[in-house]
From TrEMBL:
Residues 8-217 form the Predicted 3'-5' exonuclease PolB-like domain. InterPro entries: 3'-5'_exonuclease_PolB-like, RNaseH-like_sf, RNaseH_sf. SUPFAM superfamilies: Ribonuclease H-like. CDD domains: DNA_polB_like1_exo. It comes from Rhodopirellula maiorica SM1. This is Polysaccharide biosynthesis protein.
Length: 269
């Protein structure tokens, strides 16, 4: 009989990177590109080399992950160890600002750490739940503990597609986190989300993952806007139909004259 701690997920120490997908994000938080390293070959040692050399080439940008401190980055560190690849700048000892320091986000922002106050609380539901809080798909056809079977069946592209969807979820969670941290506004976030949606739509014919993601897409709406729309709809349903009485006709004519008069004043300067 299994208990609630049983899982079929393989510990990271027994894993190698077979698909690493990275979103490139501009300083204004807009989505630039999404790339799958060493696609379509998916060679673990090449993926690892590209991962660490790319980080250096782009000027050591901030990694943004969800549970990356406990999973993604340890896998890539161990892969570098396994394949004899230097990641000296990542392992640099610079006191509090060291890239691997848990409590500095300059090199790595783990969104799960942010939302749980560095593990003070549990994030039950994980990436799947948090993505759905902002109305994004979350986990769809494939889950992490099913990747091994996909790999055994040679479905590497499908695994890469799964990673693309995870990256998109992470990106949209990141945008909301930036609102939470006061680094952008909710209105700007909503604009960035729509821009990203257009980016995905333009590339939907290049990846089944993008098509599936769009099919499961939902738009997040401000609770305030929903309240206003609901109140407006309720008010309209309660408004009695107007009758063609002389008083109504006179009021309408008066309003038209007032509007024309105001427009005339504006045009006259």
């Amino acid at each position: 009989m299994s208990n609630k701690t049983d899982t079929t997920f393989i510990p990271y120490t027994y894993q190698i990177p077979i698909s690493v997908v990275i979103a490139k994000v501009a300083q204004d938080f807009s989505l630039i590109d999404i790339v799958s390293l060493d696609e379509p070959h998916f060679r673990p040692h090449v993926i690892t080399e590209h991962f660490w050399r790319g980080w250096e080439m782009y000027g050591k940008p901030q990694w943004v992950t969800f549970n990356g401190r406990s999973f993604d980055l340890p896998i890539m560190e161990l892969a570098a160890f396994r394949y004899g690849i230097s990641a000296a700048k990542w392992f640099k000892n610079d006191g509090y600002r060291s890239p691997r320091n848990r409590f500095t986000t300059e090199a790595h922002l783990d969104l799960q750490e942010l939302l749980t106050n560095y593990g003070a609380a549990r994030c039950n539901g994980g990436l799947n739940l948090v993505a759905q809080l902002v109305k994004k798909p979350g986990k769809m056809d494939l889950r992490g503990d099913q990747v091994q079977q996909q790999y055994d069946e040679g479905k590497l592209t499908e695994i890469s597609d799964y990673c693309r969807c995870d990256v998109l979820d992470t990106y949209f969670i990141f945008l909301r986190a930036m609102v939470l941290m006061g680094k952008t506004t909710i209105d700007n976030e909503m604009q960035l989300v729509q821009q990203a949606k257009q980016w995905i739509q333009q590339r939907a014919d290049t990846s089944e993952a993008y098509t599936a993601y769009l099919n499961a897409w939902r738009d997040w709406e401000k609770p305030q806007d929903k309240t206003v729309e609901k109140a407006k709809a309720s008010s309209e349903s309660e408004t009695p139909e107007s009758s063609d009485t002389p008083e109504t006709s006179e009021a309408t004519e008066s309003s038209e004259v007032t509007a024309a008069g105001e427009a005339g004043k504006t045009n006259d300067g």
